[in-house]
Write a structure and sequence with these properties.
With 735 residues, the protein is α+β, with helices and mostly antiparallel strands. The protein has 6 helices and 12 strands. Helix 1 packs parallel to helix 3, helix 2 runs parallel beside helix 4 and helix 3 packs antiparallel against helix 4. The chain is flat, with a radius of gyration of 66 Å.
Length: 735
């Protein structure tokens, strides 16, 4: 609430009570104390409530004279306070009546505004329905207008295309007549060239037959050489397969094998090419005999067609004159259609501008609709807030009733204590009871006045809130009323505009339908003319095509004769070159045959050596042979034994070879080909190379000049005296 009213009611009684009632919105506070100069707060939210403090102590301590004095003072005070309360209650009742009258007036105004608002909304809805119906009619008319314009545009395009086709047919007709004349001249020249080519072709065939006999003899000799070469290559392949199984990764032999296979493939490809060429020569011989017979038949047909072409030429000249007259008429009609097309495009642009305006109006109506829905939602939120406030007030009312019941229970307890005291003081009880009854009546009157005061203040506050709410609603309704009236006026203007546009569209629709009908009639006439031209054009094209086919056949025959002549000449040169190549290849094959025999003999020798070593206790590992001794000897004697076997003490180059040695020896101490006997601490292998990778055991080498030879055992390498007796391992590289 905007204003605050603070009212105080002081009542002094038997116990010198002071009661203060504060009103602040919906909250009241009651303060009571036996001391009039001290106030203790007791709050009770939203209710009328008066609570007494310490009545039991007062009754015990006071005596009868004090009771009489307090009764007299109480009566005086109650009279004054009742007078003040009556005055304040009358003021509050007057204020309540004024607020009620204002509330009634405002509610009447609100109801009037609501009725006006409802009527305006109904009018607006009716206008909207009319507006929607008109827009739908306008949309239908626009669709019809668009469809008709599209049909008209299609007819115009078809009309233009037909005229263009007619013009093209005329140009093609003229060109065909000219081409036909040129073809006749070319045909005569080609027949002469064909006769010359026939004489040349006969001479070339004779030379080709002589070359074929020579080519057949050469191919037979080459075939014999190829059979021998194939047998030799098969034997070589068998030897290579056996050698690969023994030596799996010998790179030199593989490279040689790849070269031999490539040579074999080249010979095979050459053999296939020779067989294909032989077949081609046979097919060409049969084709030449057939073509000779065809040329004789075509010569007879060409003479007959020449006579037919002369008669057709006369007919074509007459048709050309008729087509020229028709072409002049069509050009005039085309100019008329172009003028009509320009007018239609201008009308279409006007319709597009009107369509854009209507879409803008539709968007405005949609925005207004959204605003109305937002206002409805606001009213619903206000309604929910009011219902929540009502529920809160009900909860407060229930709390106040519970507090009142608690006070009543306390009051009954106090009365019981009072009855016990009255039994003790029999003489004083009667007077005290009379005073108490008066006091109770006065307190009841005071409580009734307080409840009335509280109810009046609550009613006043409620009326004020209602007054403010109603004024706000009235202002909102006024704004809505003005907005709706403006919308109604706008809708009326739009309705009139749309009706005018609809009438304009109807007139345009009728005009376009008439133009469409005219175009259809023109279109049918032009199509008939086009069909006539097409029939004439097809007849002429057929004649031209026949001449072209004849011309093409003669040119093809001439070209074939030329190509055959050139091919036979080239084949003669190829056969000569092939004959020389085959003689050279036979010499090369003989040389290769001798080389292959030598390689096979070397492979047999190496194979026999490998088999001998493997049977003497040697072990094969990664392109090398290894021999582990069964006896023991010093380092120098061990090396001498390896050299006698064509090998030397092992040289360990990587970790895989070191693991191989450990696996073969089982971790037993064996001499390896490593020593520093030449220069101390400069370890070298038996082939003179320096040590690049080592596998020394922990804290090795540590022997100094006394231990100059290396041995391999389970933990790695160790330097030891060269005179010690141990087993040794020899290594021999195959490649």
């Amino acid at each position: 609430m905007s204003n605050r009213n603070v009212h105080k009611i002081e009542v002094q009684g038997m116990d010198s009570e002071r009661v203060d009632i504060h009103e602040t919105g919906d909250e009241f506070r009651t303060q009571t104390d036996s001391n009039p100069n001290r106030q203790q707060p007791l709050q009770c939210s939203g209710s009328k409530h008066v609570k007494k403090r310490n009545p039991r102590s007062v009754l015990v301590c006071l005596v009868l004279p004090c009771v009489l004095l307090t009764v007299i003072v109480l009566c005086i005070r109650i009279g004054r306070n009742n007078h003040n309360c009556h005055i304040k209650s009358e003021i509050l009742f007057e204020e309540r009546d004024q607020l009620l009258t204002k509330y009634i007036n405002i509610t009447e105004e609100r109801n009037q505004l609501l009725t006006k608002y409802i009527n305006i909304t109904e009018e607006r809805n009716q206008l909207l329905t009319k507006y929607i119906n008109i827009t739908e009619e306008r949309g239908q008319l626009l669709t019809k207008y668009i469809n008709i314009t599209e049909e008209r545009d299609q007819l115009l395009t078809k009309y233009i295309n037909i005229t263009e086709e007619r013009d093209q047919l005329l140009t093609k007709y003229i060109n065909i007549t000219e081409e036909r004349d040129q073809l006749l001249t070319k045909y005569i020249n080609i027949t002469e060239e064909r006769n010359q080519l026939l004489t040349k072709y006969i001479n070339i065939t004779e030379e080709r037959n002589q070359l074929l006999t020579k080519y057949i003899n050469i191919t037979e000799e080459r075939g014999q050489l190829l059979t021998k070469y194939i047998n030799i290559t098969e034997e070589r392949d068998q030897l290579l397969t056996k050698y690969i199984n023994i030596t799996e990764e010998r790179d030199q032999l593989l490279t040689k094998y790849i070269n031999i296979t490539e040579e074999r493939d080249q010979l095979l490809t050459k053999y296939t090419n020779i067989t294909e060429e032989r077949n081609q020569l046979l097919t060409k011989y049969t084709n030449i005999t057939e073509e000779r017979n065809q040329l004789l038949t075509k010569y007879i047909n060409i003479t007959e067609e020449r006579n037919q072409l002369l008669t057709k030429y006369i007919n074509i000249t007459e048709e050309r004159d008729q087509l020229l007259t028709k072409y002049i008429n069509i050009t005039e009609e085309r100019d008329q259609l172009l003028t009509k097309y320009i007018n239609i495009t201008e009308e279409r642009n006007q319709l597009l501008t009107k369509y854009i305006n209507i879409t803008e109006e539709r968007d405005q109506l949609l925005t207004k609709y959204t605003n109305i829905t937002e206002e409805r939602n606001q009213l619903l939120t206000k309604y929910t807030n009011i219902t929540e406030e009502r529920n809160q007030l009900l909860t407060k009312y229930t709390n106040i009733t519970e507090e009142r019941n608690q006070l009543l229970t306390k009051y009954t307890n106090i009365t019981e204590e009072r009855d016990q005291l009255l039994t003790k003081y029999t003489n004083i009880t009667e007077e005290r009871n009379q005073l108490l009854t008066k006091y109770i009546n006065i307190t009841e009157e005071r409580n009734q006045l307080l409840t009335k005061y509280i109810n009046i203040t609550e009613e006043r506050d409620q009326l004020l809130t209602k007054y403010t709410n109603i004024t706000e609603e009235r202002d909102q309704l006024l704004t809505k009323y003005t907005n709706i009236t403006e919308e109604r006026d706008q809708l009326l203007t739009k309705y009139t505009n749309i009706t005018e546009e609809r009438d304009q569209l109807l007139t345009k629709y009728t005009n376009i339908t008439e133009e469409r009908d005219q175009l259809l009639t023109k279109y049918t006439n032009i199509t008939e003319e086009r069909d006539q031209l097409l029939t004439k054009y097809t007849n002429i094209t057929e004649e031209r095509n026949q001449l072209l086919t004849k011309y093409i056949n003669i040119t093809e025959e001439r070209d074939q004769l030329l190509t055959k002549y050139i091919n036979i000449y080239k084949e003669k040169n190829k056969l000569l070159s092939k004959y020389t190549n085959i003689t050279e290849e036979t010499a090369e094959l003989k040389v290769k045959y001798n080389n292959v025999n030598k390689i096979s003999e070397q492979q047999n020798q190496e194979k026999n050596e490998l088999w001998g070593h493997l049977h003497d206790g040697w072990i094969y590992y990664e392109f090398g042979l290894y021999f582990i001794s069964s006896e023991k000897n010093n380092w120098t004697e061990s090396r001498r034994d390896c050299r006698e076997r064509g090998a030397d003490l092992i040289i360990i180059n990587n970790k895989e070879e070191q693991e191989f040695v450990l696996n073969v020896t089982g971790g037993e101490e064996t001499w390896i080909g490593l020593s520093d006997s030449d220069v101390e601490s400069r370890w070298k292998w038996v082939d003179g190379s320096t040590m690049t990778s080592d596998f020394w055991a922990l804290r090795e080498p540590n022997g100094g000049s006394r231990e100059n030879c290396a041995e391999s055992f389970r933990s790695g390498w160790n330097d030891n005296s060269c005179s010690k007796i141990k087993k040794w391992i020899c290594e021999r590289n195959i490649f």
